[in-house]
Specification:
Layout: E1 5-11, E2 14-19, H1 20-35, H2 40-67, E3 72-78, E4 81-86, H3 89-95, H4 98-126, H5 143-157, H6 166-170, H7 172-182, H8 197-214, H9 217-238, H10 249-252, E5 260-261, H11 266-274, E6 280-285, E7 288-294, H12 295-305, H13 327-335, E8 343-347, E9 350-355, H14 357-377
Parallel strand pairs: 2-3, 5-6
Antiparallel strand pairs: 1-2, 3-4, 6-7, 8-9
Length: about 375
């Protein structure tokens, strides 16, 4: 939550932070406005109108959290809405209960749409000559119209079934079931891609294209921030921010893997590598882990020095972890790991799994999907 963000204050014990991309949005908006010939002050005012719309919806969600006895720790403001974290594992677990999750998810979009309609009524009453349906809906030259449509767009955007937008929490079961059904798989298998990177990318791309076709810079930018929010939620899961359900090494390690013997020839090792998707192999001698070697090193050694033994090209420096080690504490070691980016997971002297940067990303995507689907099964 703290990465790329800065605090704006603490209100009733809740830390409120703004993501740096909010400021980036201001810079981009000023740039677009200058190209379009808009006055700089109006562009900044338009940015403040979006910021105010986000504050209104997040204030409503914070009040809803208090209503449901959810002890808030912090709120991170994004151009697409916000992310909330809770002060205790009990509050985090309670917020994930299907009934509360759906009600909390409804608050944000309903607040934005309701506030937008309220502003529309005020504008039409105070200035009946303004045509709120005339395009462009959001532009520095028409701030009153933009004020209405920013709230409406924010509410409609958050109904999209993409994490971490509210619509994904609202329609979790329906979307997950559709994704699994489309693959011909049971809903609870955890293999559906309903909430992975794929749908988020496609919907975000659709928003960007729609914005370009309609000449709506703000719609294009919103599409970009859908991707940002999805990545932030995924990173939150990877780094273990959900203290009620931490990620352990055993949760993401590969348990089906091939090993090589230190006495294997490089030609034998290459033949083994041909028949597996594994890029890095643990090297053992008599059942003991002694090193690691990559497919690329095997090929390069054969090309430059000819056939020899695996022990001559393997990396001997390895950092090992335990199955019950926390991923958030081990992640820095994985990122800086030696040994061809292989981290063996050990139980005593026995290797029970491996972690590589390549498999970690894919395993985390599937683990996140599996946990979301499992929560829907508990409903």
């Amino acid at each position: 939550m703290r990465g790329w963000s800065f605090p704006v204050g603490r209100f009733f014990g809740v830390e409120v932070r703004i993501h740096a991309f909010f400021l980036l949005l201001l810079v981009v908006a000023i740039g677009f406005g200058s190209v379009a010939g808009a006055v700089g002050g109006r562009t900044v005012t338009l940015w403040f109108l979006l910021f105010f719309a986000v504050v209104v919806r997040q204030s409503a969600q914070a009040l809803a959290a208090i209503w449901f006895d959810l002890d808030l720790r912090g709120i991170l403001l994004l151009p697409t809405g916000g992310l909330m974290t809770y002060a205790t594992p009990e509050a985090t677990k309670r917020a994930a209960e299907p009934a509360i999750e759906r009600r909390m998810a409804l608050v944000g979009p309903l607040t934005s749409i309701g506030f937008g309609l309220f502003l529309a009524a005020v504008v039409l009453t105070a200035a009946p000559g303004i045509n709120l349906l005339e395009k462009p809906w959001i532009a520095p030259a028409h701030l009153l119209r933009a004020m209405v449509w920013l709230n409406l767009l924010l509410g409609i955007l958050n109904l999209l079934p993409v994490f971490p937008l509210d619509g994904a929490h609202l329609f979790r079961r329906a979307v997950a079931g559709t994704a699994a059904e489309g693959k011909g798989e049971p809903e609870a298998t955890g293999s559906a891609a309903g909430f992975g990177g794929g749908p988020s990318h496609w919907i975000a791309l659709a928003l960007v294209i729609a914005g370009l076709l309609l000449g709506n810079m703000w719609l294009t930018i919103m599409g970009a921030f859908v991707l940002l929010g999805a990545q932030m939620e995924r990173r939150s899961a990877i780094t273990g921010n959900d203290s009620s359900d931490p990620v352990l090494m055993r949760d993401v390690m590969l348990t089906q893997f091939s090993t090589l013997s230190a006495s294997d020839t490089l030609e034998d090792a290459l033949q083994r590598a041909i028949h597996t998707l594994q890029d890095v192999f643990p090297v053992v001698r008599g059942g003991n882990l002694v090193g690691a070697v990559s497919r690329q090193n095997i090929v390069e050694a054969l090309a430059t020095s000819g056939n020899s033994y695996v022990q001559g090209v393997m990396t001997r420096s390895l950092q090992t972890v335990l199955p019950d080690d926390s991923l958030v504490k081990t992640l820095p070691r994985i990122r800086g790991a030696q040994g061809e980016h292989l981290v063996p997971v050990m139980e005593g002297e026995r290797i029970v799994g491996i972690i590589t940067p390549q498999n970690l990303s894919q395993s985390m995507d599937l683990l996140i999907q599996s946990r979301r689907l499992r929560r829907t099964e508990d409903e």
